[in-house]
Structures are given as C-alpha cells and as structure tokens.
Amino acid sequence: MANEAVIIELLGNGGDPIRFTVADGATIEKGTLLKISDPRTAAATSADGDLFVGIAAAEKVADDGATTIAAYTNGIFDIKDGNAGITVGNMCKINGANTIAPLDTDTGELQQAECVGMALETAAANEVIAVRVLK
Predict the structure, then answer these.
(1) C-alpha closest to that of 24 among 58, 87, 67, 54
(2) Are both 84 and 127 inside the same structural domain?
(3) Given Cys at both, which of 12, 88, 110, 113 links 74, Cβ 3.0 to 4.6 Å?
(4) Is 69 found in the same domain as 35?
(5) Mean predicted lDDT score pLDDT of the chain
(6) Alpha-carbon distance 85 to 102, whole Å?
C-alpha cells in the first residue's frame, strides 16, 4: 500500500493497542489506517466515511495464518492529507486509503466514529501532517 502513518510518539501504554479480528487473506502494512466492521473486525481504510478504529501496529501478511491485528489508538502520527487541505486544530476523518480530510461539520455518533484525531499543524492538499490520534 502507500501513505502509511508514521509514528511520531506513542502515548498512554505504548499507544494503547487494541486487538481486532482480521481476515487471514488480508495484507496490511504497519501504519495502515484501519476501519471496523462487524464483528470487531479490522481492515484497511478505503473510502470517505470509513469508521476509524486505529493504526496497524504491525504488518499482516496475506495467508500467514494470523487472524488478529493490533491497532494503535493513542499517539501522534504523521498522516497524509487526502487532497483537502487541513488547518491546525481541525478534527480529521478518513478520506480514502491512508489519507485524511477535515471532519464534516454535521455532528452525531457516526461522525464521532469517523474521527481520526486532531490536526497539530496546517497542511495544503496532499501534505503529510502531525495528527493527535485518540480513539
């Protein structure tokens, strides 16, 4: 894949990783932004509106027999803006595969589930910025 998040600083207890089920056939690079589906299953993000659960803490190789993956949920990461432009302090959401955009202005539970974290710097479209991830 491309544009994986890069750890700047893990907070809490080593990034407060949470373990999720993952398909044995999935290939996930370390640093991939992860979305959730039922039941407690993580996969690589792919589109605006994906429900964010964390950042892959390790690589997952297809058909390696592993059916779980840990996701960092607490830290500061470099993440690529997905052609939207982001201002410091903006709350961010998934924009596509491993990219973010400003969170939509409407509110509600769905918006909270989409939230990746807060931008710690301003970025023009397609730049990499520091984001405070907290799930």
Answers:
(1) 67
(2) yes
(3) 12
(4) yes
(5) 93
(6) 8
What amino acid is encoded at 12 in this protein? Answer: G
Residues 6+ apart with CB under 8 A from 124: 81, 85
- Is 84 inside any structural domain? yes
pTM: 0.94
Structure-model confidence comparison of residues 1 and 54, the more confident one: 54
What was the pLDDT predicted at 49?
A: 87
Question: Which tokens hold the place of 71?
Answer: 């996701």
Beta strands in the chain (DSSP E): 6-10, 18-21, 33-37, 41-44, 52-56, 68-72, 74-81, 91-96, 99-102, 115-119, 128-134
Residue 115 lies in a domain: yes
Helices (H), 14-83: none
Are 30 and 56 contacting, i.e. CB atoms less than 8 angstroms apart? yes
Same domain, 67 and 26: yes
The domain of 87 spans: 75-134
What tokens appear for 88 in the block? 């410091």
Which backbone phi and psi does 21 adopt, to 5 degrees? -70, 145
Q: Are residues 48 and 68 in the same domain?
A: yes
Are 115 and 90 spatial neighbours (Cβ–Cβ below 8 Å)? no
